[in-house]
Amino acid sequence: MGLVNIIMTMCNSFFLVGVVLLCSWISRGNGSVSYDSKAISVNGQKRILISGSIHYPRSTPEMWPDLINKAKEGGLDVIQTYVFWNGHEPEPGKYYFEERYDLVKFIKLVQKAGLYVNLRIGPYACAEWNFGGFPVWLKYVPGISFRTNNEPFKAAMQKFTTKIVNMMKAERLYETQGGPIILSQIENEYGPMEYELGAPGKAYTEWAAKMAVDLGTGVPWIMCKQDDAPDPIINTCNGFYCDYFSPNKAYKPKMWTEAWTGWFTEFGGPVPYRPAEDLAFSVAKFIQKGGSFINYYMYHGGTNFGRTAGGPFIATSYDYDAPLDEYGLLRQPKWGHLKDLHRAIKLCEPALVSGDPVVTPLGNYQEAHVFKSRAGACAAFLANYNQRSFAKVSFGSMHYNLPPWSISILPDCKNTVYNTARIGAQSAQMKMTPVRKGFSWQSYNEETTSYGDDTFTVAGLLEQVNTTRDHTDYLWYTTDVKIGPWEGFLRGGNMPVLTVLSAGHALHVFINGQLSGTAYGSLENPRLTFKQGVNLRIGVNKISLLSIAVGLPNIGPHFETWNAGVLGPVSLSGLNEGKRDLTWQKWSYKVGLKGESLSLHSLSGSSSVEWVEGSYVTERQPLTWYKTVFNAPNGDEPLALDMNTMSKGQVWINGQSIGRYWNQYKATGNCDACNYAGWFNEKKCLKNCGEASQRWYHIPRSWLYPTGNLLVVFEEWGGNPYDITLVKREVASVCSDIYEWQPTLVNWQLQSSGKVTKPLRPKAHLSCDSGQKISSIKFASFGTPEGACGNFRQGSCHAFHSYDVFERYCVGQQSCTVPVTPEIFGGDPCPNVMKKLSVEVVCS
Ligand SMILES: *[C@@H]1O[C@H](CO)[C@@H](O)[C@H](O)[C@H]1NC(C)=O
């Protein structure tokens, strides 16, 4: 703790005349941030802080204000981001802070919205980001070893960290300077690594902590997943649940830096999602156990544009099932259900920050956590941990019905305003509406065996990252194989078999310029073996191996030493001599594609070659460049490209890469229905099995001109470009699914203000996007309907007028509100049965 922090902690703890004078002297003008066992204090005020991760390079500066506003509207106090070193220092000493990497602009926008910032400088980020955020050149600093007690690494880390801190200070962005940054992070999830490395890891932790603290930011530092974080640094928790966590010192607050809202998608994997009920449950559980800072990782996941995805095999979409979807639209009901949770928690804030809860068992699987302040505030959390059954509990003088795996929040210790398993917010089904299809394409065939000036030849096989320095995904390995006329296979025998062992990640094999086959690994095992009969002829044959990196690793012990590319052995079997080892013969290398060296993706570069058009356009051919020009569609809905009929490659819009696509890689896994109740993990709730892991690729609106936009596709494998479709993302329908008597915060406020004395029923709120109207009622039932938004079904009890009510109140409106009362639906259809309302309306 810096002197100011120590004094501020005293300010918060004691009421001594001298100290009070000192406190008013310190807090004059600029803010202060300190902490104690209970919470982070900002300007002397203990806070329950709700934070969310938005990584600035995963969206565009034009998207930032809207994302930040939606985060604020969703009840967030803080935006958390990593700092992405490899984006900021692409070459040693050459810094970049423009466009998507304009860190200062991003932080100032957060400040403008009135939110705080938690800046995770790292500079190790992990984040499923290429190379974990490290620049690839860092690997080639002599004598370097990453993230351990290594002088060259520490020097580089200190230089970059200092650069960022100084930049923040110069812009007056720390809270102590009147700025929004209230917390900073050094390193990232280093605990498990330190455990593996032993003494050098421990020494590195001590060094990193001291280095950071000595930078004198005036705000606390944190280290996540680092049980031995040295004082005054706060160790914090990352996970799906963190209620079990305690910081390493009694005077540090309990903080959750990554509450995982979902999980990342990998090419070849299904798309994970996390039910809103379980996410809300985990957060309420953390708060009831005394937690005071929670950060959603991710609040907006966004997109791995360009070649920023790590892994390898991390998909271009980093949607993460976050409350704001990849495109920046509200993911409902998750966004709304968390917003309601945050409002309920904030109502409890005075009691929550006052001390530890009193915990009382209410049954075998049920507990009450009660917080009280000296000023008389009382807040209670009633939990039912049972995964299968409801629980009826008594608390105070009342009875409460708790759904399975849920927590009810009572900001006055009497009335429930929120239950984590009872969603009051609307759900939304999204759709991708085609706006433009049948582009008129031109094509250009990439060289398959290039021997230009920039090829070089060595004996043996080279490691890929060492050779490309990651300036491109592609590396050609080419060698000659002589076949004599005496070979037996030429007279009707089996084709010789080529075997190629590669460290990954994908490989296309060309024999005399013809694609002969493809092999690829996966996130779990990036290595691959190609083993296939190949068509060789008498004389000299060219074997060309196009090795492709699909993102560099971002996690694991010394991930920087992991290899990629064809490391061999490479052999040919089925010849008269038996097996011929090709590993150590002469190989020619070419880094990258011809089209890349000509910048075919750019406006200027694309005119440097002759493209063919009309009936000459090559379809379903490997290594083909396609280009077309199109006008931007009207409207402001987010746009994407449907690449479903393409296989694998990259796409650019006006020279900007919208990322790697790989529609050919289908998701394998178990996509059975999943129940919100019970412990969640990243394999529990999956979708897209049997389909492409990622079908749609986000095109930021701001990358388009009104007319004449250049769209360039490089297809490695073969696909049909004529089915590439430009789509817009919009709300297809919205649903409400509400129990009669379901508690709501609005009703509690009406009642506690004394304006209303009788119990109030909840209301169904349905709202299409601005610019849309409710066009029809797809489903409506007050009674005992079943299913979920998108597939509701009538149950045995159904009020006769269910549809009429919504026809009358909602059709033709952008939004509507209907109270969940039997009278409005023509009377109670089944007295003494707990009823609910399920409704789905179509937006168009
Ligand atoms: C790649 O380069 C690094 C650093 O120069 C070196 O230590 C390593 O041995 C190289 N790897 C291979 C497989 O050549």
TrEMBL record:
GO molecular function term, any single one: beta-galactosidase activity
Q: Which UniProt keywords apply?
A: Glycosidase, Hydrolase, Signal
The EC number(s) this enzyme carries = 3.2.1.23
Protein origin, superkingdom: Eukaryota
- The answer to keyword Transferase applying to this record is no
| UniProt xrefs under PROSITE patterns | GLYCOSYL_HYDROL_F35, SUEL_LECTIN
| Annotated catalysed reactions | Hydrolysis of terminal non-reducing beta-D-galactose residues in beta-D-galactosides
InterPro entries from the xrefs?
BetaGal_gal-bd, Galactose-bd-like_sf, GH, GHD, Gly_Hdrlase_35_cat, Glyco_hydro_35_CS, Glycoside_Hdrlase_35, Lectin_gal-bd_dom
Tell me which GO cellular component terms the UniProt record holds: plant-type cell wall
Protein name, entry field = Beta-galactosidase
What range does the record give for the signal peptide?
1-31
Query: According to the UniProt record, what class of enzyme is this?
Result: hydrolase
**Signal found in the keyword field:** yes
Task: Identify its protein family.
Answer: Belongs to the glycosyl hydrolase 35 family.
In terms of Gene3D superfamilies, this protein maps to: 2.60.120.740, Galactose-binding domain-like (2.60.120.260), Glycosidases (3.20.20.80)
Domain SUEL-type lectin per the UniProt entry, residue ranges: 758-844
